[in-house]
Design goal:
single chain, 176 residues, mainly alpha, 4 helices, flat
Length: 176
């Protein structure tokens, strides 16, 4: 009898509708997850393109063209391409948000605090360059011996601001 009561209670609880679960908050995908899915779709797309080409060739060789089969395969390819475009948009939005949060160079490389130049591309960090070519004003890495823009030897920028030494009046020690 006890077994029958337990079975009846189980049947009654199974018949009663369970309350719907609260919707779980999903975290947005990370840029790495989006990139992985995009790479997988690109590989699948390349494989499908080869398959469609091979399918069309075989249908032509056998003189049995089936346009509905060809169009079906092409429609699948187009849906893959649409998903890739969606992922590109999501990736652009994600990287824009993360790059705004981090201190990064225009090339996308992270900048170390206190750096004057990007370690990846050599661009000057900040408003004004720390070292600039005296001839063309192009920003230079501190250890540069030649300007990459004009090709002239790198000289300190302060030297170009000084006037000609012959036009300066000699000063005598002790006199201002």
């Amino acid at each position: 009898m006890a077994l029958l009561d337990r079975l009846r209670r189980r049947d009654a609880s199974a018949a009663a509708p369970a309350p719907p679960p609260a919707p779980a908050r999903r975290r947005p995908p990370t840029p790495g997850q989006v990139r992985r899915e995009r790479r997988a779709l690109l590989r699948a797309r390349e494989e499908r393109v080869r398959d469609v080409g091979g399918l069309l060739l075989e249908m032509y060789k056998r003189d049995r063209l089936k346009p509905e089969l060809f169009f079906e395969q092409c429609a699948e390819l187009v849906s893959i391409e649409e998903r890739i475009q969606e992922l590109d948009g999501a990736l652009a939005a994600l990287t824009k948000r993360t790059m705004a949060d981090a201190n990064r160079c225009a090339c996308g490389a992270p900048l170390v605090w206190g750096a004057h130049f990007c370690a990846n591309c050599g661009r000057a960090v900040g408003e004004a360059a720390v070292v600039a070519c005296a001839h063309c004003g192009n920003p230079l890495p501190a250890e540069a011996t030649f300007c990459s823009n004009c090709g002239r030897p790198a000289e300190p920028a302060e030297a170009s601001y000084q006037s000609d030494p012959d036009s300066q009046e000699p000063t005598i020690a002790g006199q201002g």
